[in-house]
Specification:
Layout (H helix, E strand, L loop, with lengths): L1 H16 L22 E7 L2 E7 L6 H10 L3 H5 L12 E6 L2 E6 L5 H19 L7 E4 L13
Parallel strand pairs: 4-5
Antiparallel strand pairs: 1-2, 3-4
Helix pairs in contact: 2-4
């Protein structure tokens, strides 16, 4: 009986003391991990900025990922506050080769809408090729080659 009381007392003391790890602010750890992963990462909008949403399942290429963005956020994503900046009815032709993707929307888009498409296509191409996101360059026809990082600043 005395052993149980001692063990309980030690457990209570250990719990009260905590683990000793002090809280910190946000620590920048650089670019997110890349390489083989399941699912697809899409870019939507939250509070006027690009925000990612992971869709479970097998990863898709840039053309299919762009189609998913054009359909807009899922119900669960909308409940998290995500919206889309790409206007309804926009169509986009997608061509991908190596670490380059070309997007040809049927009309001019806002910078935020363009960023949704550029970052989504770049993520899909990077994941499919197993390369870092920063190595994929996306051209929006009549634009200049750019990377997703230009839209995240």
């Amino acid at each position: 009986m005395r052993f149980r009381r001692t063990a309980c007392s030690l457990a209570l003391v250990a719990t009260a003391c905590g683990c000793g790890i002090q809280p910190t602010g946000v620590v920048d750890a650089g670019e997110h991990p890349w390489g083989a992963a399941s699912g697809t990462r899409l870019y939507f909008v939250s509070a006027g900025r690009l925000s990612t949403a992971g869709r479970p399942g097998r990863g898709v290429g840039p053309a299919e990922a762009v189609k998913l963005v054009l359909r807009g956020p899922s119900r669960a994503e909308r409940e998290r506050g995500l919206t889309g900046a790409v206007p309804a009815g926009v169509t986009v032709k997608v061509a991908a080769e190596g670490e380059s993707v070309t997007l040809t929307p049927d009309r001019a888009l806002s910078r935020l809408a363009e960023g949704q498409l550029v970052c989504t296509a770049a993520e899909a191409q990077a994941a499919g090729r197993g390369v870092p996101l920063s190595s994929v360059k996306v051209t929006v026809v009549a634009g200049t080659p750019t990377g997703c990082d230009a839209y995240l600043r």
